Amino acid sequence: MSEEEVVVLNFWPSMFGARVIMALEEKEIKFEYKEEDVFGQKTDLLLQTNPVHKKIPVLIHNGKPVCESNNILEYIDEVWKDDKSLQLLPSDPYQKSQCRFLADLIDKKVFDAGRRTWTKKGKEQEEAKREFIEILKVLERELGDKVYFGGNDNVSMVDLVLISYYPWFHTWETIGGFSVEDHTPKLMCWVRKCLTRPAISKSLPDPLKILDRVTQIIKPR
Ligand code: GS8
Predict the structure, then answer these.
(1) Atom of ligand 1 nearest to the CA of 11
(2) Does the global pTM surpass 0.85?
């Protein structure tokens, strides 16, 4: 393990980058962090390692780049698989397919609705808020009585993907004028449980810093 060279290219507010960092921290894999200002000047390293999308996150493992966050999570799970290490995806093919389905659903629905709570106004903003709460309710039902989406003592890819959006909730709630807790209290219990894990809490960006950044962006509107 000591000969492994692991580098992560990230942009600090990114939910896509945060889940990769959480996965590495959960599995206790040492890595070098490199910050990329993706909306400024992209580095040659980013352009060379992700020439198709030119986006973070990129995981560079012993010089070989892996792109697309959920693909990276699966890669990490397959490469660093030992008995004591946490398993992000179940081995059963059906369970695995359900895990991928939920991760994809979260990225399609939560990302899009969440973004529209601050980029839109009026009716479009109300619609975004409604869609965001609706998908959270679906996910709350999916969690059911389990501690984590991965079971009672195992965080899974679904947990990492969904919690990677949590730092953005504060911005969406503040600008949209609503409270996630009011609509999905059980999901917020799950959030608090996730945050008790050091690998998760130390890897997530500061919600106040995100709100500050977004407030700067929307100021001239
Ligand atoms: C999304 C990555 C992404 O959007 C994944 O890795 O899961 N499907 C991909 N990365 C953004 C930063 S986070 O908003 C990015 O790098 N954007 C730069 C650009 O659009 O040029």
Answers:
(1) 12
(2) yes
Q: Which domains does the chain have, with CATH numbers?
A: 6-79 (3.40.30.10), 93-218 (1.20.1050.10)
Pull the structure tokens for residue 9. 């290219």
d(CA 163, CA 167): 8
Q: What are phi and psi of 87, to 5 degrees?
A: -105, 120
Atom of ligand 1 nearest to the CA of 54: 21
Q: Which residues form the pocket of ligand 1, taking CB atoms under 6 Å from any ligand atom? A: 11, 14, 16, 38, 54-57, 68-70
- Angle 205-102-177 from CA coordinates, rounded to 5°: 50
**Residue of minimum CA distance from atom 17 in ligand 1:** 55
Q: How far is the CA of 41 from the centre of ligand 1 (A)?
A: 14
**Minimum-distance ligand 1 atom for the alpha carbon of 57:** 6
- Residue whose tokens read 């996730």: 194
- Residue 186 DSSP class: H
| pLDDT 10s digits, 27-76 | 999 999 999 999 899 999 999 999 999 999 999 999 999 999 999 999 99
User: How many Å lie between the centroid of ligand 1 and the Cα of residue 145?
Assistant: 33
Angle (CA) 75-87-141 rounded to 5° is 105
Residue located nearest, by CA, to atom 19 of ligand 1: 55
The CA-to-CA distance between both ends of the chain, in Å, stands at: 50
**Phi, psi angle pair for 41, to nearest 5°:** -90, 120
CB hemisphere CA count around 144 (13 angstroms): 6
